[in-house]
Amino acid sequence: MGCFHSKPSQHAAGYEDPVALASDTTFSVSEIEALYELFKKISSSVIDDGLIHKEEFRLALFKNSKKENLFADRVFDLFDVKRNGVIDFGEFVRSLSVFHPNAPLEDKIDFAFQLYDLRRTGFIEREEVKQMLIALLSESDMKLSDDVIETILDKTFAEADTNNDSRIDKEEWQNFVLRNPSLMKNMTLPYLKDITTAFPSFVFNSEVEDV
Amino acid sequence: NPMNAFELISTSQGLDLSALFEEK
To answer: How many Å apart are CA A72 and CA A67, to the nearest integer?
Structure first.
């Protein structure tokens, strides 16, 4: 491990020292500086204030700032740890760290649980899963009758809800995911391993010297 | 042969954050 010191600098509100962030996350200092290049692009796309607003998040995901999507909004809300309606750089890095290929599986399972626990009750309820299925169908061309949706829910809960209380608790979720690892596929972003290659300009903007 | 609900849900475009890394 190197020894770092940061040069004094002027940054937008919400900026956090890469050295401090590296000690809290799976990322190296260089990777965090590369992520800052990405963050600057996203956070200046609609309102140039150094913070990611929901419209900017949607624009980055869908190339459309007005496209409403239940899941993208849930991801945004989970990234927005301070719940002030915007994502600052520290929140961006800490949340993305969960998606790193080297992040603990337990963190990924926990993040997905929070994502699907729409009402933040500590349980994934059958009604929530139905709401998510309907939202998914509305964004695709797939059409399923209510009977088919109920059959899918029956099958899913028969497998996941082992104590039969019509809701999935954290432990049931962990066991279910371990039996169905493909459910965690989108919780890992291979890009995060090559982030310094994807954003090489971080080198020119680096404020941290390895001494 | 119905799929499991979460398999379907996990295909949502809103959950695919790799789009964040596409060239802007």
So the answer is: 10
pLDDT at A10: 60
Calpha distance A47→A100 (Å, rounded): 28
For range A83-93, the mean pLDDT: 97
Residue A111: what are its φ and ψ, rounded to 5°? Answer: -65, -45
> B1 and chain A: CB distance < 8 Å anywhere?
no
- The C-alpha of B22 sits at a distance from chain A's nearest C-alpha, in angstroms, of 8
Contact of A118 with A128, CB cutoff 8 Å: yes
pLDDT at A128: 97
Q: Does A72 contact B6 at a Cβ distance shorter than 8 Å? A: no
Give the residue-averaged pLDDT of A186-201: 88
Q: Which amino acid is at A5?
A: H
Q: DSSP code of A145?
A: -
Which pLDDT score, from 0 to 100, does residue A200 have?
79
Taking an 8 Å cut-off on Cβ atoms, the answer to whether A139 and B11 are in contact is no
Contact flag A129-B5 (C-beta cutoff 8 Å)? yes
Identity (one letter) of the amino acid at A208?
V
Tell me whether residues B21 and A129 touch, CB distance under 8 A.
no
How many CA atoms lie within 13 Å of A112's alpha carbon, on the beta-carbon side? 29
ipTM, 2 decimals?
A: 0.91
Judge whether residue B10 has pLDDT over 90: yes
Distance from CA of A22 to the nearest CA of B (A): 20
Question: How far apart, in Å, are the Cα atoms of A12 and each of A49, A58, A208?
Answer: 7, 21, 17
Shortest Cα–Cα distance, B24 to chain A (Å): 8
